[in-house]
Amino acid sequence: MVNLRNLDLNLLVTLDVLLAERNVTRAARRLSYSQPSVSVHLAKLRDIFGDPLLLPGPRGMQATARAEALRQPLREALESLERAVTPARPFNPAESEHTWRVAASDSSGSTILLPAMTAIRAAAPGTRLAVLDLVPSRLAKQAEQGEVDLAFHTVEDSPPGLRRRSLFTERYVLAGRVGHPRLRPQLTLAEFCELEHVMVSPDRGGFHGVTDDALAKAGLQRKVVLSVPHFLLMMSVLASTDLVAMLPSRLVRNTRTLQVIEPPVDVPGYEMVMLWHERSHRDPAHQWLREVIATPV
């Protein structure tokens, strides 16, 4: 059994060329070695494999049965190694068939991925994009294991150890259906608290969020009558009822079924970041996707 830990890769390269040329002089010229150096390599190879490998013949050197058995597997192994260590070629989106996996909430999917889709499809029509539910508690492990290429999350709650790039800082606005009888500019704080609110629950089923924290500092409380798990459902509720909601401004900036006003309470916004693992940081395809997503439309 040959111990690979003690095997000089240069010897295998020499053997590969010798098996192709069947001539020490031609092999030395092709390898840019001296003829004695190639002879020394051959002697070491014979000792390692316990076989003469190449014997003098009437038309050059003749391979032994052991050498013939080595020839094709050795060539394939060296070709694989060459591909592995060759610098990555520039990414060509027009020819790519990549499949990317991105973790996003319905909100970040709508405000980040959706605007980028036209550019991605136009430049890389052969690629595919899988959007997965964002599970913050699993994100670091998913990125480390290659299950997720990119993720979008608030900077405050992002897991440590991941690369990040800031995309934007978001603020909250108050939204309700067009024609809502009580939704108007310069709404007072008391009127705001009397409205019936719907919210996306950060803890799934809760009725308290950042807006409630801001109101509590002033000794006030709003009426949250509905808690939903996703923004998509919230938008439908707003369009068809008299409920109102505090929403990220980007989520409603092009919505015709809702009217949007500035809220009478100062609710802290958040910074949205793009996250990825170090393992894919220098990958050309990954770099291209990150740049497309981060480029404002």
Automatic annotation (TrEMBL):
HTH lysR-type domain: residues covered: 7-64
Spans through the membrane: none
Origin superkingdom: Bacteria
Assigned keywords, A-Z: DNA-binding, Transcription, Transcription regulation
Keyword Transcription: yes
An example Gene Ontology molecular-function term: DNA binding
Similarity field: Belongs to the LysR transcriptional regulatory family.
PANTHER family noted in UniProt: HTH-TYPE TRANSCRIPTIONAL REGULATOR LEUO-RELATED, TRANSCRIPTIONAL REGULATORY PROTEIN
Protein name: LysR family transcriptional regulator
Species: Pseudoduganella lutea
Organism lineage string: Bacteria, Pseudomonadati, Pseudomonadota, Betaproteobacteria, Burkholderiales
